[in-house]
Every structure is written in structure tokens, then in C-alpha cells.
Design brief:
By secondary structure, the chain is an alpha/beta fold. It has 17 helices and 20 strands. It has 2 domains: about 5-245, P-loop containing nucleotide triphosphate hydrolases (Rossmann fold, 3-Layer(aba) Sandwich), CATH 3.40.50.300; about 260-499, Rossmann fold (3-Layer(aba) Sandwich), CATH 3.40.50.300. Helix 3 (about 100-105) crosses helix 4. It is globular, with a radius of gyration of 23 Å.
Length: about 500
């Protein structure tokens, strides 16, 4: 019989506004296993691991470690129990070196206090992993893969027994993910445990020993990873909605001749004075979806922010509908009917302290100083229904929603708002399969039916191939392409992403 290191028993959690995130969930995390946690948006996955990590406190239920009841009131307390979280976004200080970052966090727990010892550990671990990291390199210079490896090394230095991976592998290409799978398997083989939260069912099937499935705050089942079938998992997650999932290429657009979005020899400086975007020229025509693939941290964020008017261009030009909008600011760009789904959705995409209705009204104010509130409420209600947003009502504060449902609000209002162009950076980030497919179809529909020019930037190659009429790859600030989707071999595109 498997030894149970951690047990979450009868865990319930309700947030302000009456949103019930978890309802009497009981899950075992066994020593030496990889447990995948799956579920649709709002199912309660992140809430459950955040309770285990001490970010949230449960309304009801108990946590046991080695059959002993424990109270975990903070991440520091979780770490003392050997529980460490690695999130989708690396929690590192960019201006410090790798060794300094790790030494900072470790001193508080009386672990390694010598930076030399930390640097030696980093060199040994990264060398074994196959992704070499210089301990004295500044974090801002690292690739996304390297940053996530640093987070895993931090977990090892903290003597983790249980590692919680909250969408931590989402942005990695398959080749890099498999390196992490190997790393995780070695960790569990030595007596550790790993919990992987993911929306990618194939990822769970490949990596997990067991798969636990949540739906609307309840545990609907736990299945063995080796015997699980993808269709069965989808039915448990989504019910009848599973039939909506398809990865076939969506209908091709018939682009016009004129470019709606155009960049000419664009150079953009990053946050630390480096050339984040280097000589990028591209055209997105009316009704066309142009996809840019690439691993996060290769200039995509700086490019989309500049196109939206949020970041200054150091050289080159940006044209929207033939009008030069270079360094004119976000108001000018937005008033031209450009929708923008940002890479940092909580920073630029929405105000979580306001309601959905108020966030939509802020867009309407770009057309007129007077807001037609009845029209705004009607739009909000239609978007809630169309995008299946789990929200008490359109007047509820955004901050009471799950991460996936917040993303649905952002995506739905921007797709609805855009008249001329849409700049979409990871539009299905944090969305489950059914929601992601629905968003992709909505974007394609705006391009085909309304002639909206779409620049789609995504680390998800399935998304790029399904939606795009032409594909580019961005690496180290440079753009490679365009490639026709039907002729672009996936292995070649992945190679361009990591060279």
C-alpha cells in the first residue's frame, strides 16, 4: 500500500461574492508520485494548492503530513514542512544574479548561507539537467526555461519533499518540457512528490502517475495515469462540452491587399537597456491572422506593448491603417479601434477592483464621454453567456473570480471592442481546452466576418497552427519567416524557437 505523505481532507473554500471554489475535496499526495491536477476554469485547482502552500486558508477541512494534522498559515510555514511552489511566472529579482537570488531566499530558512556553496550547487544541477546556467549571470539575461530551472533548483535547496507546479511548464516547448519531466521523475524516485496543475491533458498523461480531476469545486475522480484515455479525461472535466474540442485548422482567411498593422525596421529597448526587439518588419493585412511563435522572453512582450502604445520605440516605425502611430501612446492606438490582450493581463488588461460592467464602460468612453449604461450592461450579459464566464453577475467585482474567468472577461471585452485590429498576446493563457477553442474560433470569426487584422503572439504552438494564416518565429528579438502553416514543419518551428 502506498505511503501517504500529505492528505488534504474535506477541504472547502468560499470567496467573497458567494463564489464557492472548493466543496469538501479530499486528495492524497503520495510519496514518490507525480500527481496531475486537472479541471476546467474555476474548478478550484489553484485554490487547492494555494491552501496547501499557505496562501489561502480553508473554511473547512484539515491537512495531514505523515498522519499528523498541521496548520499551514503562510508559504514560509509550508516550506518548513517541505512544500515548495513553482508558478507559471518565475519569482526572481531580475537585477540580481542567479546565486544572489537563491541565497537571499535561503538565508531566512537557515539553509545554505554561502553564495559560493549556492553557485556550486547551481552549476552541478544545471549541468546535469542539460540547461547550463552561470550562477553569476543576471536573471534578466536568462531564458524562460533557465528561470524555471532556477526555481526548481531553489526547491531542491529548500529541501522540498513536495513540489507544487502551478502551470509552471505551460510556456515550454515539448523538448524543454520533457527535460523537466525527467528532472521531476528523478526527484520523485528519491522520495519526493510532485503536483502538476495543467490545462494540457496530454502533458498530464505523459508525466503523471495519477490524475485527479476537479469540476466546479468538487473532486469527480482520480484515475491512474498509465490507463487514462484522453477522451475519458475530457468527459470528466467538461461533460457534454468535451465534444466542442477540436485542433483541426480553422477556416483560412481571405486577406485584403492593404496592411492594417505594419512595422518597419523596428528596434525596441527592453527594461534593462538591451535591444529586446531588433529590426522587426512585418505586415498584417485586413482579415488576416498572423501568428508569432516563440518562447517567452524573446522580445514578444516588448513588441506587442510598443504596438499597443505602451512602450517607446527606439528606431523604426509603426503604422496602423497607414497612419504613423510610432510613440503616439496608447490612447491614439486604442481610439483607432485596436483591441489589445496583454501579456500581463492584470497590469494592463483589467481593473480587478471594478466590476465587469465598469471595465467594459471604460472602453466605451473612448468613443464618447457619456456612457450608455443599459447598452454596456447588455454587452456584459451577452459576453457572460457567450464565453461561459463563471461570475455571480456583471456587477460583481473582478477580483472574486478565478484566474481563468478573469482571463475570459479580458479576452471577451477586447474581441468585442476591436474594430480594425486585434493584438493578442497569449489570449488563451490560463484557459481550459473548451474555453481556449472557443476563444480561437471567436478571434478567427472577427477576422473572416469583420475583416479585423489579428496579430497573435503565443507560446502555444497548437494555437499558432490552428488559427494563423502565416507564421513567424521570434527568437532573441529577431523575426524569422513568414512560413505558410501548411508547409511549416512543427519540428523546424520548435528548432527556431530554441536555437
Amino acid at each position: 500500500m502506498s505511503y501517504e505523505y500529505v492528505v488534504l481532507k474535506e477541504i472547502s473554500k468560499k470567496f467573497a461574492g458567494g463564489v464557492k471554489a472548493l466543496d469538501k475535496v479530499t486528495i492524497e499526495i503520495r510519496t514518490g508520485e507525480v500527481l496531475a491536477l486537472l479541471g476546467e476554469n474555476g474548478a478550484g485547482k489553484s485554490t487547492l494548492v494555494k491552501i496547501l502552500y499557505g496562501v489561502y486558508s480553508a473554511d473547512e477541512g484539515t491537512i495531514y503530513i505523515n498522519e499528523k494534522r498541521v496548520d499551514i498559515s503562510s508559504p514560509a510555514e509550508a516550506i518548513r514542512h517541505g512544500i515548495v511552489m513553482v508558478s507559471q511566472h518565475p519569482q526572481l529579482i531580475d537585477t540580481l544574479s542567479v546565486a544572489e537570488n537563491l541565497a537571499l531566499g535561503l538565508k531566512a530558512f537557515n539553509a545554505f548561507t554561502s553564495i559560493k556553496k549556492v553557485s556550486k550547487f547551481i552549476s552541478e544541477k544545471s549541468g546535469k539537467f542539460g540547461v547550463k546556467i552561470d550562477p553569476w549571470e543576471k536573471v534578466w539575461r536568462l531564458t524562460y526555461t533557465q528561470k524555471q530551472l532556477v526555481e526548481m533548483i531553489r526547491a531542491m535547496l529548500l529541501n522540498a519533499r513536495v513540489v507544487l507546479l502551478d502551470e509552471a511548464l505551460t510556456y515550454l516547448p515539448l523538448e524543454e518540457k520533457r527535460k523537466f519531466y525527467k528532472f521531476i521523475k528523478e526527484f520523485t524516485a528519491k522520495g519526493g512528490s510532485a503536483v502538476i496543475i495543467t490545462h494540457k491533458i496530454p502533458e498530464a498523461l505523459e508525466a503523471a502517475d495519477r490524475i485527479a480531476i476537479l469540476r466546479r469545486g468538487r473532486l469527480v475522480g482520480i484515475i491512474e495515469g498509465g490507463s487514462a484515455r484522453i477522451d475519458d479525461v475530457r468527459k470528466m472535466m467538461f461533460g457534454e462540452s468535451a465534444a466542442e474540442i477540436t485542433y483541426g485548422k480553422l477556416q483560412a482567411s481571405q486577406p485584403g491587399e492593404e496592411a492594417v498593422i505594419e512595422t518597419q525596421d523596428l528596434w525596441i529597448t527592453g527594461d534593462f537597456g538591451e535591444n529586446a526587439v531588433r529590426g522587426v518588419s512585418l505586415r498584417v493585412r485586413e482579415g488576416e491572422v498572423v501568428g508569432i511563435a516563440g518562447i517567452v522572453g524573446n522580445g514578444q512582450r516588448e513588441l506587442t506593448q510598443a504596438l499597443a502604445g505602451l512602450r517607446k520605440v527606439s528606431r523604426g516605425r509603426i503604422l496602423i491603417g497607414g497612419r504613423d502611430v510610432t510613440n503616439r501612446g496608447v490612447r491614439v492606438v486604442r481610439e483607432m479601434g485596436v483591441g489589445y490582450i496583454p501579456d500581463s493581463p492584470l497590469a494592463f488588461g483589467i481593473s480587478i477592483d471594478n466590476s465587469m460592467t465598469e471595465n467594459i464602460a471604460a472602453l466605451y468612453q473612448r468613443k464618447s464621454m457619456l456612457v450608455n449604461w443599459s447598452e454596456v450592461r447588455e454587452v456584459a450579459s451577452s459576453l457572460i453567456e457567450a464565453y461561459k464566464i463563471m461570475i455571480p453577475d456583471a456587477g460583481s467585482l473582478i477580483k472574486v473570480l478565478s484566474g481563468g474567468n478573469i482571463m475570459k472577461v479580458i479576452v471577451s471585452k477586447e474581441i468585442n471592442y476591436c474594430r480594425r485590429a486585434l493584438i493578442a498576446h497569449n489570449p488563451t493563457r490560463a484557459l481550459d481546452e473548451v474555453s481556449a477553442i472557443m476563444v480561437r474560433k471567436s478571434i478567427k470569426e472577427r477576422a473572416i466576418s469583420d475583416g479585423v487584422a489579428v496579430l497573435l503572439v503565443s507560446e502555444d504552438l497548437d494555437e499558432i497552427y490552428q488559427v494563423s494564416d502565416s507564421i513567424y518565429v521570434m527568437n532573441s528579438g529577431k523575426l524569422y519567416g513568414p512560413f505558410p502553416p501548411d508547409e511549416a514543419e512543427r519540428s523546424n518551428v520548435e528548432h527556431l524557437m530554441v536555437i
